[in-house]
């Protein structure tokens, strides 16, 4: 069993692994990238996803051979009975890489019984890394992170929208939610890299995030970093949001700086 004090050791391992994967990806983007379709929902996978995931799996399973792993491309690995599970997204923003947009991240989370206890997000393009351990705050390149409380500004809040790849074009709920947010917000970002949206919320660069039927691999690490920086996260019905269990369908949530949550929840309720 991993003791509480060992989470700092796990953080070091995860940060080093994420940064090594980031260097691999950046080097790979300088050459020809092999891009293949992934399923029938418009997603893609590249040779960089696979190479980065291989590196991350080797680092994590070598350091923690008794842990389980859920990885974007490889699925479930390791000890399925373990109370500890690593969730690995080797390249969050693959579609951006495929079109030459330098907006992507590497993400890892360590969950206990499905609840994130450690999160790491690395942005290869800038070389910046953010991390958090539950109850110990969030860290960025400049030290501790703390998202300032929301202060209403002219034109409304700046939000990010995240939806799962399984959401079809014309989905009535997604269309209604996006239209409602567009009416209320100063700007709604669609980054195609959810982990970076979570980091922007943790830094206070944006005011909130609305997620609809989101996947799991790019969720727990960024979620924990934002929460440890002071963000509030709820399910659409207003109950506290918890990404456990790490199986099943997509997740719906509203995340925001303190002071904006009720306004966003009301916007979601009205739009649906």
Dominant shape: globular
Query: What is the helix fraction of residues, given as a range?
Result: 25-40%
- CATH fold descriptor of the largest domain: Fructose-1,6-Bisphosphatase, Chain A, domain 1
Strand content: 25-35%
CATH C-level category of the largest domain: Alpha Beta
Q: Tell me the domain tally.
A: 2
Class computed from helices, strands and strand pairing: alpha+beta
Number of helices: 7
Main beta sheet: strand number and arrangement? 8 strands, mixed
Compute the average pLDDT: 93
The CATH homology group name of the largest domain = Fructose-1,6-Bisphosphatase, subunit A, domain 1
What value does the Rg take, in angstroms?
18 Å
Give the structure's gist in a few sentences.
By secondary structure, this protein is an alpha+beta fold. The protein has helices spanning 6-29, 47-63, 94-98, 172-184, 194-203, 220-228, 261-271; strands at residues 35-38, 43-46, 68-71, 75-78, 84-92, 105-112, 115-123, 128-133, 138-140, 143-145, 158-163, 187-189, 208-214, 232-234, 251-256. It contains 7 helices and 15 strands.
Account of the protein in words:
The structure is a single chain. The chain is an alpha+beta fold. It has two domains: 6-144, Fructose-1,6-Bisphosphatase, Chain A, domain 1 (2-Layer Sandwich); 158-271, D-Maltodextrin-Binding Protein, domain 2 (3-Layer(aba) Sandwich), CATH 3.40.190.80. 33% of the residues lie in helices and 29% in strands. The chain has seven helices and 15 strands. The strands form three sheets. An eight-stranded mixed beta sheet has the order 4-3-5-6-7-8-9-10, with helices on both faces. The longest helix has 24 residues, at 6-29. The chain is globular, with a radius of gyration of 18 Å. The termini are far apart.
């Amino acid at each position: 069993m991993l003791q509480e004090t060992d989470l700092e050791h796990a953080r070091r391992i995860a940060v080093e692994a994420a940064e090594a994967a980031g260097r691999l990806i950046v080097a790979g983007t300088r050459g020809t990238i092999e891009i293949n379709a992934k399923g029938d929902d418009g997603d893609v996978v590249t040779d960089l996803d696979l190479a980065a995931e291989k590196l991350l799996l080797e680092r994590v399973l070598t350091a923690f051979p008794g842990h389980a792993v859920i990885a974007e491309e490889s699925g479930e690995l390791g000890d399925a009975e373990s109370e500890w599970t690593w969730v690995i997204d080797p390249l969050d923003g693959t579609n951006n890489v495929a079109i030459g947009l330098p907006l992507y991240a590497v993400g890892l989370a360590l969950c206990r019984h499905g609840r994130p206890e450690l999160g790491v997000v690395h942005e290869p393009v800038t070389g910046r890394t953010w991390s958090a351990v539950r109850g110990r705050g969030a860290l960025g390149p400049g030290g501790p992170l703390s998202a300032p409380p929301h202060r209403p500004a002219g034109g409304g809040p700046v939000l990010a929208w995240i939806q799962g790849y399984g959401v079809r074009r014309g989905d009535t709920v997604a269309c209604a939610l996006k239209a409602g947010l567009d009416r209320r917000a100063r700007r709604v970002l669609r980054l195609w890299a959810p982990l970076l949206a979570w980091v922007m919320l943790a830094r206070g660069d944006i005011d909130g995030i609305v997620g609809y039927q989101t996947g799991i691999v790019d969720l727990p690490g960024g979620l924990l970093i934002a929460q440890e920086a002071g963000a509030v996260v709820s399910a659409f019905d207003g109950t506290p949001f918890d990404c456990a269990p790490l199986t099943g369908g997509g997740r719906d949530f509203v995340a925001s700086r303190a002071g904006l949550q009720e306004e966003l929840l009301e916007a979601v309720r009205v739009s649906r």
